[in-house]
Specification:
alpha+beta; 26% strand; Alpha-Beta Plaits
């Protein structure tokens, strides 16, 4: 079992990314709203607002997609489709994709531990 996490910075890709995830079999994925740390620092620590240009001019929100994968092949399939569709997570403007091992899972699709 793996847990794939996507932090999608380019929200214009959200529909395409979710479509690819469904195509790869990620039916239990969840999409969460998020915001970049720079945005929080700007609003909660006014002193840092004067340093805004150090981070970038683009203070934006993002979407975090959490995808449990019972079969590691699902992750490989999604990565292949992302590459085919030219969604490049090595580009920092697109976002970040990573997986974590999931050692305990309980729920509808529970597998033996």
């Amino acid at each position: 079992m793996k847990l794939m996490i996507i932090i999608l910075k380019d929200e214009n890709l959200l529909e395409q990314v979710t479509s690819i995830l469904v195509e790869a079999g990620f039916y239990d994925a969840s999409v969460l709203d998020g915001e970049n740390i720079e945005t929080l620092a700007d609003t909660t620590m006014p002193l840092l607002a004067s340093f805004k240009n150090l981070f970038s001019d683009d203070f934006s929100y993002n979407r975090t997609i959490v995808c449990p994968a019972a079969d590691p092949q699902m992750v490989k399939d999604a990565l292949n489709i992302f590459e085919k569709e030219q969604i490049d997570f090595s580009n920092p403007q697109t976002g970040t994709l990573f997986t974590l091992p999931c050692t305990v899972f309980t729920g509808e699709n529970r597998e033996d531990l």
